[in-house]
Design a protein that fits this description.
The structure is a single chain. The chain is mostly helical. Helix content is about 50%, strand content about 10%. The chain is built from 3 helices and 2 strands. Strands 1-2 form a two-stranded antiparallel ribbon. Helix 2 (about 20-35) packs antiparallel against helix 3.
C-alpha cells in the first residue's frame, strides 16, 4: 500500500535511513507501486508491494550506502 509520507514507513526503514533517504524511498515506492499494479509487469511470484519495495531500496542504494559501522550515509560526490 502506498505511503502518505515518511511517518508511515515501517520502522525498519524509519529507524535506519536518514530523512532524505526516507523521502527517496517513499517517492520511489509509491511510483513503483503504481507501475507494478499489473502482475505481468512483475517478476513471477512477487507481490506488488514486494516489487515496489525492491525498487525503492535500489533507488536509496544509488545515493546512500552503509558505512563500516552499519550506518546509512550519503555517497561521496
Amino acid at each position: 500500500m502506498p505511503y502518505r509520507d515518511i511517518s508511515d514507513l515501517p520502522d525498519s526503514v524509519k529507524n535506519h535511513l536518514p530523512k532524505h533517504a526516507q523521502e527517496i524511498y517513499v517517492k520511489v515506492f509509491n511510483n513503483a507501486f503504481d507501475e507494478y499494479s499489473d502482475p505481468h509487469k512483475r517478476r513471477k511470484g512477487t507481490s506488488q508491494e514486494e516489487s515496489a519495495c525492491r525498487v525503492a531500496w535500489a533507488a536509496v542504494k544509488k545515493q546512500y550506502h552503509k558505512d563500516d559501522k552499519g550506518k546509512w550515509v550519503k555517497n561521496a560526490a
